[in-house]
Amino acid sequence: MYRIFIVEDDDKIATILKGRMEQYGYEAAAATDFRDLMPQLEAFEPQLVLLDINLPYFDGYYWCRQIRKQSSVPIIFISARSGEMDQVMAIENGGDDYITKPIALELLMAKVRGALRRVYGEYAPQPSAATSGAHAQPSGGSIENAAEITAGGLKLYLSRNEAEWNGSRVELTKNECLLAECLIRRPGHVIPREQLLEALWDDVQFVDDNTLTVNVTRLRKKLEELGLPKAIETIRGQGYKLSMDEMGEPRHA
To answer: I need a labelling partner for 24 at 20 to 30 A (CA). Which of 5, 47, 94, 166 fits?
Structure first.
């Protein structure tokens, strides 16, 4: 049974959300102390977080950043703010998706089910014997034992959401890891935007195309931290590709 943690200061909305989650067979809990959410979240150990933006003491962006310091759990923002910049900030601060109030409950449930499938279910990245350098991660294993894929010396550790190049490592969000996996599995080839959208959100009708752009920008920044500022190349009107020039390998036509 998946556990959903609800961070919503409107008691009526929180009760409705909790009831709907339980109706679909999930275990749900709502935050009660908005001064310090982390002890509650750590005790509940959720597989997904529903997070409002307008909260007492600290806003949802702040709490999203705190969660991201220690967890890659999917975070879906729920807010009355419908502006484009609000949604961009939600993604920039570590969120995975965004839904506006008044909440369309069926759309919310579709997003919840999709996020859980991507991270824990049938669409979750699985180690493959055919994957370069991939092998299973034993319980309590180190980063070197995590399932990994490589391209031109750039390594992606699927089980840890981390990337490594030239001895340096950087932590990725779940979405960043999914994007990196798509690109690294076909280095030098153009990956269409539609394929990347499907990898992240299953059904493209639920996705703002701008959200993909934001996630790619975030991944670029992470790779730049590793010393690969031009690793992801934009192919106008088509998609993106992992350029092998920087890593000293030939590019595909």
So the answer is: 94
Cα dist from 103 to 12, 16, 173, whole Å: 13, 10, 25
Rounded Cα distance between 205 and 65, Å, is: 27
pLDDT digits (tens, 9 = 90+) for 155-195: 998 878 899 998 899 999 888 888 999 899 888 889 888 88
| CATH value of 3-120 in 3.40.50.720, 3.40.50.150, 3.40.50.2300, 3.40.50.1100 | 3.40.50.2300
List all residues 6 or more positions away from 231 whose beta carbon is below 8 Å from its beta carbon.
154, 220, 223, 242, 243, 246, 247
Contact 47, 4 (CB under 8 A): yes
- In terms of average pLDDT, the best of 27-31, 160-164, 242-246 is 27-31
